[in-house]
Design brief:
The protein has 633 residues and is of the alpha+beta class. The protein folds into 4 domains: 3-208, FAD/NAD(P)-binding domain (3-Layer(bba) Sandwich), CATH 3.50.50.60; 232-341, no CATH class; 351-380 and 394-483, no CATH class; 493-628. The strands form 7 sheets. Strands 3, 4, 6, 7, 8, 9 and 22 form a 7-stranded mixed β-sheet that branches. Residues 1-48 have low confidence and may be disordered.
Length: 633
């Protein structure tokens, strides 16, 4: 579109907005063409109202869903972003994550798998947005335009971008709005009857004083967190090149997505302590480019702006080197060209709020439903690499689990809901619950909950404790197109194993993983020194008050790597790890004397000369329950 024509369009829109009383104002930036990388900047008029029913902080997809839901329920909404963004969509449009981790129903037809026309959980606003884009990956520019159009179509939404800072306005422990500094440096207080925190990192809740953990803190490792990614772009894609991707043995493709190229993990990083490459996830754009999600950047603190900027610099230095490696390593990519990086990092993990309920690994292992479920998840528990020496893991693959409304209600602070990846999930189940489709469902539920709480004159915390109120909320969500069915599915085989209680505890403490097929924990296989050592190390991390020993040295003295674990050795290591000094030959008797192990577990052990993985899980589970007083259930 020519510059003159763009100004005409802007003027016409402004006159139209004034004429019908829309609370929109066109910024000095003109409307771009459909395939431009930028979306029009929108801000509040100078005479804008200062009071709203709901303020939604954060313009990622979760925040957009919350704003749309609240507006469609008749509330006056302000959608505001404090990251200096010039477009809607956050991670998807600024982080270029154009291939989504999908939240699928448990059973998919062969046709759905072939065509990509999947049956999604929750549906609702996410489904309507996704269906208009088409394909398992989407064009990031088209996604931004569609988000903008969906927001524009709601007369009850005002949008404020370019904000320099925003923080909660509190009355005691109740959030009453936001104090902001806008793009012109003007400080303003915006009042609201409810605030929804849809920032990626739960910034508003944290500033309000809501309790939270960071990274792997709940697993005893607060400095560990999943790697961040800088998505990069390659140009020159043709249909012939795309089809050649699918002819590789290690790679799959559909019309818009490709995955594989596993040899990419052999990339010789120029900065191996900070950068690595994994197999590629590729999303196709409409302009002959592809976006590649594969770079891992370690040691970035998402809550430290200096660290984030350092991560961006590291990624931008490495991206062209990675592109050259791909061109020379894979024949299919030799004619592609490096074309830049995303404006923002893809951050997987930062804060984990502590809410009225905290989602646990037991919830996913048992595919639990909840009386207050307002969304459902099913994505694999995908823990990306934590650092150079770590390889990441698929902890397990749930069929379908409920997400309680209580996970959106932060402890100690009222007037506020938290949606998206920083809601109240333990760090391990967060590996599944962090995905965008589920986050958009929580956002949609939060927007409707605001309507209900305002109508009933109750707080979100009171709503979270009301079965009748939650029932009305669920009816509202169904009425606006959400699917809140718990699909029928047979329970996984591991739940029928006699050592399942031990497995549940071991998985919850990060001691073992099941992989995509939930079989890698090998319950009937013989345990080895390496596995048992990992379990003891995790005990020290998880429960340091009760397990203070140094298992590395204790086990190294009498077990060779790979050697099976006897009952005597397992008992001895367990006691030494807990600080009890005892001779090895007396360890079993001492363990029985202390009554740390249940009679049921003793009866399971049929071959003391070689314990199975399941049996060692049971020993540890009982010791933690009876010695540390913590039961995983």
């Amino acid at each position: 579109m020519a510059p003159k024509k763009k100004w005409i369009v802007a003027a016409v829109w402004l006159l139209f907005a004034v004429a019908i009383g829309l609370p929109w104002f066109m910024d000095t930036a003109s409307r771009p063409s459909a395939n431009s990388a930028e979306v029009v900047g929108l801000t509040l008029p100078k005479a804008a109202i200062e009071k709203y029913d709901v303020i939604v902080a954060g313009t990622d997809p979760e925040g957009i869903a919350a704003a749309l839901s609240a507006a469609r329920n008749g509330l006056r909404v302000l959608l505001v972003d404090g990251k200096g963004r010039d477009r809607l969509g956050g991670l998807l449009t600024m982080g270029w994550l154009n291939s989504l981790d999908l939240n699928l129903a448990p059973q998919q037809t062969a046709e759905a798998k072939r065509s990509g026309n999947y049956d999604f959980l929750n549906k609702g606003i996410f489904q309507k947005w996704y269906d208009q884009l088409g394909g398992t990956s989407f064009d990031a520019h088209a996604a931004a335009d569609l988000f903008e159009q969906m927001v524009r179509d709601e007369r009850n939404i005002s949008l404020l971008l370019g904000v320099k800072s925003m923080e909660p306005k509190l009355e005691g422990k109740v959030v009453r709005g936001l104090a902001i500094t806008d793009g012109n440096g003007r400080s303003r207080v915006l009042q609201a009857r409810a605030v929804i925190d849809a920032t990626q990192d739960g910034d508003i809740a944290a500033l309000a004083g809501a309790p939270y953990t960071v990274g792997r803190e709940d697993l005893g490792n607060p400095d560990a967190r999943m790697a961040v990614t800088l998505v990069f772009k390659l140009s020159g894609m043709t249909e012939d090149i795309w089809q050649s991707f699918g002819r590789r043995k290690d790679t799959g493709v559909d019309q818009s997505s490709a995955w594989g190229f596993l040899e990419a993990s052999n990339y010789p990083s120029s900065n191996p302590d900070r950068v690595a490459l994994r197999g590629l996830n590729i999303g196709r754009q409409k302009d002959g480019t592809i976006l590649v999600n594969a770079m891992h950047i370690f040691g970035v603190d998402p809550l430290d702006p200096v660290s984030v900027q350092e991560g961006l610099r590291i990624g931008r230095r490495e991206a062209p080197l990675i592109a050259e490696f791909l061109k020379t390593t894979f024949e299919e990519m030799k004619d592609l060209s490096y074309a830049g990086t995303a404006p923002e990092l893809y951050v997987r993990e930062s804060r984990h709020m502590q809410g009225e309920y905290r989602l646990t690994m037991a919830d996913l292992m048992e595919n639990r439903d909840f009386w207050d479920a307002i969304a459902y998840g099913s994505y694999d528990v995908d823990i990306q690499r934590l650092g150079r020496g770590d390889h990441g893991a698929i902890m397990m693959s749930p069929r379908q689990y409920g997400v309680p409304f209580r996970t959106l209600v932060p402890k100690e602070i009222d007037g506020l809901l938290v949606v998206g990846r920083s809601a109240s999930f333990d760090s391990l189940p967060h590996g599944s619950a962090r995905v965008v489709p589920l986050g958009m469902a929580t956002g949609e539920a939060a927007g409707a909950a605001a309507r209900l709480a305002i109508d009933e004159g109750i707080s979100f915390r009171q709503l979270a404790g009301s079965r009748s109120g939650i029932s009305r909320l669920q009816d509202m969500l169904r009425g606006q197109g959400m699917d809140l069915r718990m699909r029928e599915a047979r329970q996984p085989a591991y739940r029928g194993h006699p050592t399942y209680p031990g497995l549940l505890a071991a998985v919850s403490m990060g001691m073992t993983l099941g992989g995509y097929d939930n079989n890698r924990w090998d319950l009937d296989g013989l345990s080895s020194k390496d596995r048992y050592l990992t379990m003891m190390q995790r005990l020290v991390k998880m429960h340091p008050r009760y397990f203070r020993g140094k298992p590395d040295g204790m086990l190294a003295g009498y077990l060779k790597s790979g050697e099976t674990v006897t009952l005597e050795n397992a008992a001895h290591a367990l006691l030494l790890t807990s600080g009890v000094q005892v001779k090895r030959e007396q360890a079993v008797a001492e363990l029985k004397k202390r009554n740390w192990i249940t009679p049921a577990t003793w009866s399971l052990i049929s071959h003391p000369g070689g314990l199975t993985n399941g049996e060692t899980f049971m020993l540890v589970r009982d010791a933690v329950a009876r010695h540390a007083g913590v039961t995983y259930r």
